[in-house]
Queue: 4 jobs
Job 1
Amino acid sequence: MSVYEIKGGVCAPIGFKAGGIHCGIRKNKTKKDFALIVSEVKASAAGVYTSNLVKGAPVVVTKEHLADGYAQAIICNSGNANTCNSDGIEIANAMCGLVERVSGIKANDVIVASTGVIGQKLNISPMAAGIDELYAALGDNSEDANEAIMTTDTVKKSVAVQFIIGGKVCRIGAIAKGIGMVCPNMATNLIFLTSDVSITPAMLQTALSEDVKSSFNMISVDGDQSTNDTCCILANGLAGNTVIDCKNADYRIFVKALHYCTVKLSKMIAKDGEGATKLIECNVRGAKSEKMAKAVAKTVIKSSLVKAAMFGADANWGRVLCAIGYSGENIDPLKIDLDFKSKKGNLPVCRQGYGVDFSEDFAKEVLSADEVKINVNLNLGSRSAVAWGCDLTYDYVKINGDYRT
Amino acid sequence: MSVYEIKGGVCAPIGFKAGGIHCGIRKNKTKKDFALIVSEVKASAAGVYTSNLVKGAPVVVTKEHLADGYAQAIICNSGNANTCNSDGIEIANAMCGLVERVSGIKANDVIVASTGVIGQKLNISPMAAGIDELYAALGDNSEDANEAIMTTDTVKKSVAVQFIIGGKVCRIGAIAKGIGMVCPNMATNLIFLTSDVSITPAMLQTALSEDVKSSFNMISVDGDQSTNDTCCILANGLAGNTVIDCKNADYRIFVKALHYCTVKLSKMIAKDGEGATKLIECNVRGAKSEKMAKAVAKTVIKSSLVKAAMFGADANWGRVLCAIGYSGENIDPLKIDLDFKSKKGNLPVCRQGYGVDFSEDFAKEVLSADEVKINVNLNLGSRSAVAWGCDLTYDYVKINGDYRT
């Protein structure tokens, strides 16, 4: 029941091709802005989306197209979110139509996504002109597709794994874009997963819906929640395993492999939060309930004061206690133990709600690492949760103070 | 029923003296750190406090002391919040004891507050050594007290008004400190109000509790909520009006004057948020309920992306719509009208959920003002609310990245 990382991103599973080109939505010609992922055969498909009531038009269209549980392609542009536009639905449908025109895959088997600025009209012309080039570019090109869906991301976010189900080698691959607006109920703007596992649409949706609760939903970059967050998975069955149609042992292997991918992407997204210099992981244990553990972990990760302190490598643990205190959960301040931890060592800072002495020099060393853990024990029960975030930096402000221009 | 601004801060009402000195809690000798406000006679007293479960020891002690509805003095230090310390209650009580020693005012008639770093022990010695000097410094010195309660505030926040009740001239005065950790359920760390109005403790508490819902509770600087937020009022009755003991016409005059002071301070606090360069006011109308109006206004004001856009004078109105969409309220995106407004003019950016054309140059001009209004019409009903916040700047990160050192 082991999961191994492999190369190839969304093209690692059998029967998937991907590509990405610059079609002209962005002015910068060196930045790809148009991506396509295609399966050789129609695939089981599932999705989870933003809970923001202001939804991007592509989210609405994708939900419709996945209503029957099947899809075969994913089309995506960056540079414009196609949201809050009166012609948004029309444009999103037109993007699916372009895929049908070049590939023969029916428009309603196409997942569509857009990311970028909100409230500016998305012109179909550059995509209509570029779709042939994009289709021709399809191949083992997961990285091109990854680049084409990026906005202010500074690194590509991709993972692929292989695992065995019933003697058959199976694979999951994924690409993601994160950055800004990451939180609270959906992780990042866009995550596309592919797999060659054979699984029913219903079980695929169950697996994805349950997984995101402890992966993408536990990330926060800035507390905002995008209008366009979309996480979709296609599973085309070409691995040849016996179809997974219930929560059996095969399902559990698939879920484990899926979770490996989603947690890895979650950390990559958090660490690459706009302007971030480090990954912050908040581990909460000793909670009365999973709800309590998650709420506390998320509140700590979201606190601007905690995030700014992490940027400054300042062991201002009072801010962590303060955040726990306003989490809305009925914690007992006088039971809280708190440690900061990194590869440089473990720093106990608070026991039973009160400060313990520590070396400021050692604290600075621990907190200067590029991955810092905030370990909280509420000492009230046995449930736990993990959330991921990043520090708050000058560059976050710089990036977001002038995003559109 | 008119309210006029006057000078004098907390010393404007009859019978109040104030003072502030440097006693040595802070290393910087030019920064006052110890404040005292005293009424000639015992006064009706009321308070509202942080709802954070991690509470500063002074909050616990002050609540006890106000349980009988009366108090006569306010003692406060800055530089250390006396929170998460095992001897916190003892120290807070000792501070009240110092006031009793020099003034004869009973310790349990003293309101105590502390602000500054959390989790470091507060040494009583500098205060014990300085209390005589502080008591001797009492006079018409509201500004000294104001300075002594400041932390990273860049301006003193003070207001005083006079008004007529039953032919008698009455006054309310106030000083406040804001900055950082301002939100969501209590406004700022510390607000001290004085009045010479004659009013029962019960009516004073009712007036204060109802007032903060549309004043200090509608401010957000960074979404964090302090452990030490305290807003207290003393009303000593020396104006000689007929005692206010029910919600009569006199009460309504008092409430109006109180609200004038609290809204003025709320705006001052929001505008002086850590690193802020401008005041953001979000006016929401057309809501189905007051709850909806407040939730939408607060969510917009708290959005890091909106705040960063305001800093950059970037008319990225999609972020406002996005924030409205995740407010948790059942709004209809396709009914939202949105305008940005300042002294430079009014800029309609969205009608019925879709963008309208506007000049980027004019937008930059409107948003470059030092006070910007985000005016939202939900077009669902008749209720409204106002919330105040500030932009998110490089300096916020700088201040909070290295607060303790």
Job 2
Amino acid sequence: MKAIVHEGKNGLAGLAYKEMTTAKPKANEVRVQLKAAGMNHRDLFVLERHSSSEPPLIIGSDGAGIIEAVGDDVKDLQIGDEVIINPGLGWDENTPAPPDHFEILGLPDHGTFAEYITIAAKNVFKKPKHLQFIEAGVLPLAALTAYRALFTRGNIQANQTLLLPGIGGGVATFILQFAKAIGATVYVTSRSAEKRQAALSLGADRAIDSNADWSQALNNEKVDLVIESVGAATFDQSLAQLRKGGTIVAFGSSTGDTIQLNLRDFFYEQYNFLGSTMGSAEEFQEMLDFIDTHQIKPIIDEVYPLSEFHDAFLKLQNAKQFGKIAFQID
Amino acid sequence: MKAIVHEGKNGLAGLAYKEMTTAKPKANEVRVQLKAAGMNHRDLFVLERHSSSEPPLIIGSDGAGIIEAVGDDVKDLQIGDEVIINPGLGWDENTPAPPDHFEILGLPDHGTFAEYITIAAKNVFKKPKHLQFIEAGVLPLAALTAYRALFTRGNIQANQTLLLPGIGGGVATFILQFAKAIGATVYVTSRSAEKRQAALSLGADRAIDSNADWSQALNNEKVDLVIESVGAATFDQSLAQLRKGGTIVAFGSSTGDTIQLNLRDFFYEQYNFLGSTMGSAEEFQEMLDFIDTHQIKPIIDEVYPLSEFHDAFLKLQNAKQFGKIAFQID
């Protein structure tokens, strides 16, 4: 089969679209013929983390397709089932944090940027019926991360207001869709006028230019919840918009990791600051149910064939997308 | 009546033990003959915050005594009742943060370092029967702060482990007693060998020299909960001891307010960082019930008459105490 493989040099220079062998499913495993896959920022990190001294690695965390082989002891799944893959390996039940042996599909295990994947049956879920394969293929990692950050951690309620700095990436776009689906008020920020417009079209109640004075843009209205993934560049501004007793959830830090906090302000305001990343298999099922209930469809920025991986990676690297970048796999 | 009054110069130099008038209780107020009062760090802050251009102020937040006059419309309280005072003004029900008009007794309202206080009846609670006046008098602010930080915010469970940096102050000492009362494991730190020994006598499972390597002292065991009040000097070390998905509650920052955080570590570890200060009237009643159920008695470091306020303030300023500093009022 053909796959996008990382070997040798770090970064994009180490990627190739080449022939790899497929594995026969063992007990409690299935083999899925992939119809679509989705890109995540993690795919870029993996190109740096996967060592040139290790065997070639099929990258990719997100995928959807059709079961075409079933190992022994597999229940509830059969050949021909249309499925979506949970990329979280080893985090089954809702717990405050993943177990020590938790991994994400695509490093160290072979991932989804391939014609086939052989994977534990418990990571394979029925595809929501209202989604095309290309839509299901971009869902897993980002929608799971969004679900946990917004609901499990942020505990957002319909009558609350959410501030979402840096709209555009896959997770933030899902958070906007999920929050609007339950009727919350959502304010977003972006440096890009196009992304602000796209967010308003998706239902954002206000879209603020990142370079503007946020307090002024919000008429000094404080928010109940902030979900932060921009990091050092916006964290101070984000915290300044939070009401007393409000919550800030962080799941990313794309502009830098180091922030300063004033402890006295923090405890007088009785803030809650919660870290979040990925989610459990239980949350993956809850997320699929939520998507189904609200008939949510992912926003797809652009679709590439696997063979044009180089262009797709450049687009991801330049953060020009609004929503998800997909691979169609024939 | 006699009272400790701040006027004129900032700091200790502006304090005097002098004659003040008492107020007659209006509707929904009572007058309490104070038998004991307790000192808090807040009393030192008040000496800086109370402006020399304002009228003389009776300071003090903690007190206990006997009702000796009752205003109109007061229910459930009568002359002769032995009572303890909740110093939180305007925060009645449990909410994520106090209302905007929340104040603490002793600034701007006259406080408890006096022979009498006239105060809203809803701030006056029946004294737990197992406590002497001197014990009840030191309880309110610190035990309320401890209760909210440990239970409402920290949500400690019997099978969990708590790290408590900087044992010795009133709040930390109550936290140690409360956590041991429910059967939790408690590790404390202090620079003072005497305070470490005192903490062990109070039930601490381990007492670590603040200057030691904490990880090593704990054999690399991570904890479920940290309650921080030391601030800049210990925050990094405190966070480093926390297990994945663990919680750090901050209610103070005695060594400095500014801390740095690594966002990536924070969200990968799925930490919870919660600010806490004081508590509601509902929590005050819960705290009294808890004290009663577990027959907890405050640790009193030293007792002074009101007239020796100067020595008492110096002791508090030098942070030499273990537990609470009290005023006996005759």
Job 3
Amino acid sequence: MTTPFFAAVGGGHTTEILLTLFIMLAAAKITAEIFERLKQPAVVGEILAGVIIGGSVLGWVAPSEFTNTLAEIGVVFLLFTVGLETKPSAIFKVGKLAAIVAVLGVIVPFVCGYLLMLAWGESNVQALFIGTALVATSIGITARVLSAMGLLDAPTSRIILGAAVIDDILGLLILAIVSSVAAGKIDYVEIITTAALAIGFTAFVALVGAKVLTNLAPTIERLRIGDSFFVFGLVLCLGLSVAAAYIGVAAIIGAFLAGMALAEASEENPKMHRQTSAVTEFLVPFFLVNIGMQLKLDVFRDGSTILLAIILTVVAVATKLVGCGLGAMSLGWRRAGQVGMGMTPRGEVGIVVAQIGLSLAVINDSLYGVVLFMAVATTMIAPPFLKWLFATEDAAKDNIDSDDAGGIVAQGDFCKIG
Amino acid sequence: MTTPFFAAVGGGHTTEILLTLFIMLAAAKITAEIFERLKQPAVVGEILAGVIIGGSVLGWVAPSEFTNTLAEIGVVFLLFTVGLETKPSAIFKVGKLAAIVAVLGVIVPFVCGYLLMLAWGESNVQALFIGTALVATSIGITARVLSAMGLLDAPTSRIILGAAVIDDILGLLILAIVSSVAAGKIDYVEIITTAALAIGFTAFVALVGAKVLTNLAPTIERLRIGDSFFVFGLVLCLGLSVAAAYIGVAAIIGAFLAGMALAEASEENPKMHRQTSAVTEFLVPFFLVNIGMQLKLDVFRDGSTILLAIILTVVAVATKLVGCGLGAMSLGWRRAGQVGMGMTPRGEVGIVVAQIGLSLAVINDSLYGVVLFMAVATTMIAPPFLKWLFATEDAAKDNIDSDDAGGIVAQGDFCKIG
């Protein structure tokens, strides 16, 4: 099979890509099935699948530009789907509390992470970077867990989602500042411009977007193309993701806002929700597996690296739990705990910070490994605790789905609506 | 926005990809809407969108490895969805007729294309390549058009799909032979091995696969992961696509067979069909737009190139119409015409042949442009005629959907099942 024909058709680039997709999806779903049977969150199983097929264990699939892109598209659609289930009014209702949770959940981890690294003997710039890596919650992971548990409507979920959006914006601003420091000059104009754009964009889409789209809905329904509302949603999701990225907010925030802006307009259209959810269902495993694939276990041959990774993970969990929990203390201990634990996963955001640090040469391979470990570990630690914190409160829901691995309602199941 | 932070997050690779997705999807759907309003097939509109945003007109998106991959994934899912609607028994019923249609539809275009190019003064190898480019029907385009018209169940549709699968396999074998000739040596062992593998794989999946999966269905339903049947289908689709590609059949044939093998097992599961259809609905526009983007209009500054392109297109249409039509003549004139016109689009298969010819340096840019023109033109010519040939026969169906652009039922509409 060596003719150019087979090079182009048989064993070519596209075949490799299809093989990558096959391995990632099959591995994700096999481990998810095992985790469900062990009554553990499927999300953790899918991340673990990435660790197993990645370079550290089997080496079947290496994280590449392609898998990163696929993962990003996956998390974009995940946030869009979550946004669709999130009415702006529900977020505004918790807006003030979410803002307090977000701000405390940014300050406490940043300061503690910074001080820990200074105490560990790292330089000022390195300490700033590690502090920054602790700042931003992975809204993707939290959203996936809450959605898989059928809890997107819970009051604490609203706070978590609202706070995660705010802390993502704050995190990106801090990253811009720290990157400027690392590059040797702070560009105040750029930072202020970015901040203004980010806040303006978010406020505009959340406030004006929803109203415009609710008025537009009948027109969208009347389009001649098939499934016009679904198609419009896909285009809006991609468009606002790109707009957000160009403005300096993360693409996923744009996708979330696109979904939220459509939440009320699409309320009468369960078919559109089902279709979006199917696309997300297909794409999300690639996001989760790709996170696991980032983990390189070989930097942990050094005992002190292991120690630092564990300490940083403990700090990462504790500071979000304390910071965000304090912010939400008015809701009582249990719900404050739900909020704090919900904000714990760092997932892809921590990894992006570490990658930038590496590209700026302020962080070495070993510190990069430590941040990755923290990002993946916080992501894997949170789901079981979240499940436990919600399950004990939510006994009624458990009874409804008692045959379904402890009340877990798969995300795709809002297909049952129609 | 020049810090590494923005390079990584703001204007980075992933943002570009999201922008590409946005432009391709938005352009596809805007032109599709215009075409629907003009009572023309949306498929043609989406291909035209590719011509417009591609290098020949606006130059917004260039065909790249990424868009080709995306297109391939799109057509893989399209064929999987079509396979899901195609029960093996329905194909076996028309098997003999489909085989006759396929064989005549391979011989007539190949011989006529070869002779035309010799008469035009091209070399023997070039003529062989152009003949080969005329051989294989684009099952993707035909399937999309039939599915958009709600005609996958029509008897002629079964013949077209069966014949397209067979002629794809024959086309790939001829391509392997012609590539060997171009490389200066014919590797008979490889050609026979490929032929045996291709036929064996197709027969095995079609005959054994369906039975195995029908028996497996209750087990798949019992899995704990959400939407287990949908997920299983996705994994099977990707797995058999890869297997087909490695064996030397096109990936899309594997996807089609995966769908067909699941068609009976998934009959009781309309939700799985709806979910798969949503993923396909999202991905297919990228396949169609990418075909249009391949067309480079600037090679047509030369009058004789235009003339050759037009003659080759006429030959491409006439030979499939005559070859396949002759094969199906037992069904009467109109249905023979439907089959012949249904087999006319060359789409991505003709383009693949041209690309291989270019990579082997047997075809120059101008001949490449001619083949691309033929591939895109046959793809755009067929849908309106198909629509007309079916619509005049299918007057009853028209009345049911009379407000819907001449009886067009959008593909996603089998979501109405549930």
Job 4
Amino acid sequence: MDDIVKKIIAGDVRTVARLIRDIDDGIPEVREVLKKLYPYTGNAYVIGITGAPGVGKSTLVDQMVAHLRDQGKTVGVLAVDPTSPFSGGAILGDRVRMQRHSMDSGVFIRSMATRGHFGGLTQSTRSAIDVLDAMGKDYILVETVGVGQDEVDVVKSAHTTVIVVIPGMGDDIQAIKAGILEAGDIFVINKAEREGADKTLADLRLMLDMDQNKYREGKWKPPILKTEAVFDKGVVELLEEIEKHREYLKQTHGTLLPRRQKEKVSQELLDMVKSRLIEEVLGKLTETGEFDRAVDEIVEGQIDPYTACDNLVLPNIESNSSSKK
Amino acid sequence: MDDIVKKIIAGDVRTVARLIRDIDDGIPEVREVLKKLYPYTGNAYVIGITGAPGVGKSTLVDQMVAHLRDQGKTVGVLAVDPTSPFSGGAILGDRVRMQRHSMDSGVFIRSMATRGHFGGLTQSTRSAIDVLDAMGKDYILVETVGVGQDEVDVVKSAHTTVIVVIPGMGDDIQAIKAGILEAGDIFVINKAEREGADKTLADLRLMLDMDQNKYREGKWKPPILKTEAVFDKGVVELLEEIEKHREYLKQTHGTLLPRRQKEKVSQELLDMVKSRLIEEVLGKLTETGEFDRAVDEIVEGQIDPYTACDNLVLPNIESNSSSKK
């Protein structure tokens, strides 16, 4: 155990890769390693990059990695994609493209799929961020496909969240989940050489202004940048904006970066407790066959689902629980 | 209690409205009522209508209600929207539009917002469906904004799921969450008078064909219809397709409709057990202040979140739980 911890802190790539795979596979034993790694975390700067499929997130990430390496920074990349029939291809393409960094020991790249586990995507990604942080990476770039609640939760763990769109999304830009727009610190219109980039910029500005009036205290005004990631245009400017946001965070929150702030700690602990509860109790109910028997009884009309739920849950939680009847 | 149950079965609008509000507010006592209502459920036909904001779902629902009423059917409508700053306005507009049915005792319309509760949207919506079902409605139309996992889960509870898009979504159609596409039984291109309707139809057909090859057994081939809901065009045809799908379900699954089928029962029970566990245990941890104390300790660096999670969860679940360390 302590051997694993030491190897990770020393940056041993194989050990890190194995641990992240174990996290992705939902192996419970990783928790003990994570506990020991935690004191070594808190140094990396975490950047979330999110947007719909096809907006060019991975090309952008690839260029960001190159520039950060030029500055002598070490970088970890987590590409998070809840594997789906429609996006499965993208992951493969991404990883091939990323190969230009594969011989560089200052870059560590991993994809996470995480499906079918009770804990879910958010939990695994946060743990993987902790691992890359403990490993000593200066920057951790977390790339997610921004469509669901899970992805919103993931980007909320980042220090700076970059939301990527492309021109021509026009009216449909409202289809971006509101929670994601609110979570954006910097907006990027990638493929800005395409027609309609200015219209998209204006639309986005309008939506953000509406949002800010209501929900922000007028502090950080999210900039909107145009990039052409394939031609490496605008990427340096994006990194500069990220540094500005980092400075802003430092000035407003002292040296405390978001994941150490009370609100984010509270959200992360809440998610962790939920996942854990489900894992422990549902794991048991599945193993013992109790869950399947209850399903059969409902299908056969012997019991209603509300009573079945009582019967499954109540005996498995401590009897001093408040609302137990 | 039995009085409430009797009133609901008799279709008393005020009692139903109050119960649905209590469900939406997450009041635990509703469970006892739901248990007693359950034997009276299973008769309504549930239609899910989902799609991005602005595609005209509520106008479509409004027209569907009018036609179903012409056929002498009673209808319940649940408009489900996890309240967001960007869609808040839509709900209001919808409800105003729906007022043409407000004097018709054969129609019952309610919005559900459900936020901030542990149980979440899916759980409350399913319970509300049970209530409208027990109330005796022939059809229940559940309108959701189709962007997140919650909405996917909601439509999976419907017998027939209608997915609504508009022309010109073009390439961006892939931004529709894959899970939602897979859940679609019928696709509607609304506002079909707009340019690009045929292109959208072709794109959609292609995506569905790809999907079907892999994931369906070539049985129900989801039709794609064009509608112009504001002009009441195509709505009758949509209702005919829904009837065809209902016939298909009957033939392939006997008289068992989806929510009584094993797979759906299993999914619903799983969700219900998860919500309940979280509600019971997190409710207690919040009340006693244990959760907040743990957050403070993490922020102050006295404990790591993984250990804090152990300390919160393990004492609250029965000690014979399988993976307890």
